[in-house]
Each structure stands twice: as structure tokens, then as C-alpha cells.
Design brief:
The chain is of the alpha/beta class. It has 2 domains: 4-30 and 282-370, Aspartate Aminotransferase, domain 1, CATH 3.90.1150; 32-275, Aspartate Aminotransferase, domain 2 (3-Layer(aba) Sandwich). Helix content is 36%, strand content 15%. It contains 11 helices and 13 strands. The strands form 3 sheets. It has a 7-stranded mixed beta sheet with strand order 2-8-7-6-5-3-4, with helices on both faces. α2 (30-46) crosses α8 (264-279). The two termini are 28 Å apart. The relative contact order is 0.17.
Length: 372
């Protein structure tokens, strides 16, 4: 099965390329171009009044798509920002004590690690790191204000399955549980309906949502972090019960909003979701397509000297294969010289899969790997 026609613009822009980093920069489908144009046309037609449309039907449509994907009971718990780091900073700012005692896995993404290291350096935080396999036990045994964990770890593809046990620890007074879903959202089927009232969840459109940069979101459980210290005027709310001069906040996810932003990502995201609906392409169906490609590559045993960190097993799996080996960086560069795009993290070569690939692409990759 092939879905290349949905990506004709991106594929024709570099016809000889084998793009195996759908887990990093996912190629944009043609529908995203239509969404970008729609954003421009609304800005030209409506000018200043475009914000009524952006914060009205465009915003609500995007919230609805996300709530449907994650089985969230209330779309209004969702806020948008240009990146997930904004939300980390705002959540952290709402914790009323210092230093903040934080638990995270030892495999979190660079931006989290850098920010946390700086907070520790400044005396704002104390960090405890645990391997993914030991996160739950450490969380249950410790006394933390914030627990932060990726649903799917970016470097190894390991999946933290038991989100319910983490969520059971969450309380409005602390700890707060934040799930980084960037490598899980629209990559593995995710049902948050039973824990939506206890966890924060952040993700975005750059990867498996196929919508590009600038469209990230936060689901914020009601009653948790009602008044972030880092805030913007979009989070304003006229609460007549507040004393004069007090800063009011929206009661839903909008309490985490910042200020003026580029709304084009929302248009692209909505357009891509409409495309997927029209094509009958659910996360489950896309995952099945990706799994067939992954099995083809693994069965070929085309990377001697490398160990697969996330073997193919029954159940959910990351959309990329993480191969560890001393030659990872060298092989990455050799592939790039042949217009085969992968990525490397230290000694781990990551090979990602998406809708725009078929078996012929995998067979070409296998041939090139065997001759590199």
C-alpha cells in the first residue's frame, strides 16, 4: 500500500531522497500547503478581525481533533503554544515552593535537560533522574513536586506503558505529573479518558501530526496550577470575585496561554486531520503500515554490528527503530552522502517511518545499507 500521492509536493521537491526521519521532521502532506494558504487568505481578507476566526472556529476545530485523538472528555482543557517548552516553563512557574523537587527519566529531550540543569544550577530545582524501567518505583517511593516523563523516549523508543500508576500519584497540591507525548501523539493509540483529570500532557504537530512547527498543545487538568506565574494577556480572565488589581486567569486550559502567536500551524494541523479523516487513516492504520515497513528492515538484518534498542514486539511501538553501534555517526554521514536521511544521537542511529514510504523505499534502504 502506498500513500505517496498525499505528499506529492514534498516528494517532488527532492525526488531522489529517501527520507527516513519521519520521527524527527515529518514530511509535510499536500493538505498542509492548503492549510498554510488558508491562513494567509484569512489574514488578507480579515486583517485585524482574523483573530475572531483563529480563536473561534479554527481554535475549536483543533481542540476537537486533539480531544478526539486522546479521548479527552473536555476539549477546553487544551491550550496552544509555539513549542512545548513554553508549557514546561509555565507549569514550573505555578509550583509555589522552591526548590522544586523534580523526578524525570534519564532519557528526556535536550530542551528539558538543559532547562532543568539551569534551574538546578540556580537553586530553583532539585532533580532526581531514573531509568524508564525504574520511574514508577522511584515516583511511588519519593516525595516530589513534579514528575516529568516522556510517553515514548526520543532516544531509545522505550514506552512508558503504565500512565495510570503515575496519574494515581497526582494531586492538585502536588505532585503534578507531566507526560511529554511528542513521540506518542498520533504515533501510538492513546486513551487518556480515565486520567485526564489528573495529568498534564504536552505534544505538538512537528512529528507524527504532520503539521510542522508552531502548533504545540497542553492538556491541563482542572484544578491543577490555576495561576501560572509566567503568563500572557491571552490567559486573562475578568473574575469579579478577585480583589482589585489582582491578576485573573481563565478557568480552562487558556490559563496557560501566552501572547500573540503565529496561527498558521493551527490551520495546517486542521487541514491534515481533515485529510486523514477523508482518507480513513487512523493512528491505528498508520501504525500498521509503519510496522510492516519496520518488520521488513529488521528481517533483512542489514546493520551488522548494531543492536536494536527497541525490538519489534507485540503491542505499541515507536515509529522509529533505534540502532546502537560504534559506527552510528559514520554510517549516518555515509547515508546522507547518498541522499538517505536518518539521524544520529551519540552512538544511536534512528530510522523513522511514515505514510510516505512503501516497501520499495525500504528495499532501497536495505540495499544501500548493505553497500555502505
Amino acid at each position: 500500500m502506498t500513500h505517496k500521492h498525499l505528499f506529492s509536493r514534498a516528494l517532488s521537491a527532492n525526488p531522489g531522497r529517501l527520507h527516513f526521519t519521519a520521527h524527527s521532521h515529518h514530511l509535510w502532506p499536500d493538505a498542509s500547503f492548503d492549510g498554510q494558504v488558508a491562513a494567509w487568505e484569512d489574514a488578507a481578507r480579515l486583517a485585524d478581525q482574523k483573530w475572531d476566526r483563529v480563536m473561534g472556529p479554527v481554535w475549536k476545530e483543533a481542540q476537537g481533533h486533539i480531544a478526539g485523538e486522546l479521548k479527552l472528555p473536555d476539549p477546553s482543557t487544551i491550550a496552544f503554544s509555539s513549542n512545548t517548552h513554553d508549557f514546561l516553563v509555565r507549569i514550573f512557574s505555578a509550583i509555589p515552593k522552591r526548590p522544586v523537587r523534580v523526578l524525570a527519566t534519564d532519557g528526556e529531550f535536550h530542551s528539558f535537560r538543559r532547562q532543568m540543569a539551569r534551574w538546578v544550577e540556580a537553586g530553583e530545582a532539585e532533580l532526581v533522574s531514573a531509568p524508564a524501567s525504574g520511574l514508577l518505583a522511584t515516583a511511588e517511593a519519593g516525595d516530589f513536586d513534579l514528575i516529568f516523563a516522556s510517553h515514548v523516549l526520543f532516544n531509545s523508543g522505550a514506552i512508558i506503558d503504565d500512565l495510570e500508576r503515575l496519574a494515581a500519584l497526582a494531586r492538585p497540591e502536588g505532585p503534578w505529573v507531566v507526560i511529554d507525548g511528542y513521540h506518542g501523539f498520533m504515533a501510538i493509540e492513546t486513551d487518556l479518558s480515565a486520567i485526564a483529570d489528573r495529568i498534564f500532557y504536552v505534544a505538538g504537530g512537528y512529528k507524527y501530526a504532520m503539521a510542522g512547527e508552531g502548533v504545540c498543545f497542553l492538556h491541563a487538568p482542572p484544578g491543577f496550577a490555576p495561576r501560572p506565574v509566567v503568563t500572557g494577556w491571552y490567559a486573562a480572565f475578568e473574575d469579579l470575585a478577585l480583589p482589585p488589581g489582582a491578576t485573573g486567569y481563565a478557568q480552562d486550559g487558556a490559563r496557560f496561554l501566552g501572547s500573540t502567536f503565529d496561527p498558521s500551524g493551527l490551520y495546517r494541523f486542521n487541514a491534515v486531520r481533515r485529510m486523514l479523516d477523508a482518507e480513513g487513516l487512523t493512528t491505528s492504520k498508520i501504525s500498521a503500515h509503519v510496522a510492516s515497513l519496520q518488520h521488513r528492515l529488521v528481517a533483512a538484518d542489514a546493520l551488522p554490528g548494531f543492536a536494536l534498542r527497541n525490538p519489534l514486539v507485540a503491542g505499541a511501538h515507536a515509529r522509529f527503530l533505534a540502532y546502537r553501534g560504534e559506527r552510528a555517526s559514520m554510517l549516518h554521514d555515509a547515508l546522507a552522502a547518498k541522499n538517505v536521511i536518518t539521524d544520529v544521537r551519540g552512538d544511536v542511529l534512528r530510522i523513522g517511518f511514515g505514510l510516505y514510504q512503501d516497501m520499495q523505499d525500504v528495499d532501497r534502504l536495505i540495499y544501500i545499507l548493505r553497500n555502505s
